[in-house]
Design brief:
six-stranded mixed sheet; 2 domains; alpha/beta; 36% helix
Length: 300
Amino acid sequence: MQDYQLSYLQELEAESLFILREVASTFKNPVLLYSVGKDSSVLLHLCKKAFYPDPIPFPLLHVDTGYKFQEMYEFRDRLQREGFNIQVFHSPSALNSKASPDQLGTEKCCGILKTQALLAALKSGEYDAAIGGARRDEEKSRAKERVYSFRDVYGQWDPKNQKPELWQHYNGHLLKGESIRAFPLSNWTELDVWTYIEQEGIPVVPLYFAQKRKVLRKGSLLIPEEGLLQEEQKAQTEEVLCRYRTLGCSPCTGAIASNAQTVKEIIDELFLEQKSERSTRVIDHDRQGSMEIKKREGYF
């Protein structure tokens, strides 16, 4: 009998399917955190595979800050029309605060619109497990987490208080009020994600592909016109052929100069890339160690 050996991508896929099924079978009320980005698109595709021919056994949750790109809203709404159970959460306290990065700075704005809103959404839905698309290669603090990332009753993370994961044994035991963030893409890289997108023909938001866009040069970042809240900044924009490697709130997400207009061209471009995709997120530069501090406070 001829041995059957999985390819590298098939091994990653098999591991992710296993994790998704473990979450569904272990926890009472899991939810998939859906950001509308490429990793979320891959996760959604994996969920369909993991539970086929049944529907996905948990809802999708999109925490809307009100500052996402219009193309992201259109992509999300199209999936809702196709029948996916996407629950959109708007934090009342976040909306009442009228928070913006220009008024509060990126650190406080992110704390209100993302961290506090996410914790409120998870508490409101009484979710005991939140599945996310975070990967260990995105940012150094993410590499400290396990596949099952434990959160205490306040939704906070302590990197020193993590459960071991030997031989893919995931400990889902929780006390009342505690929860887990599960990351099925932990062992994937940005290049793996795009290679899988090409292989599986997974649709993604058009913002990932290069086209001429009006942007403001802010150091090494290209801030989109859509994300500029001040009129004097909009007057300084220029048209640049660019694309986004990662998607967040428009005022805090930078584009990169690029000619890549297809998935294949993005893959070719990544072979030469040396910086993390998170280098284009303004919130990752607002203070030293900011991502780890945000995660300790409950950030995704």
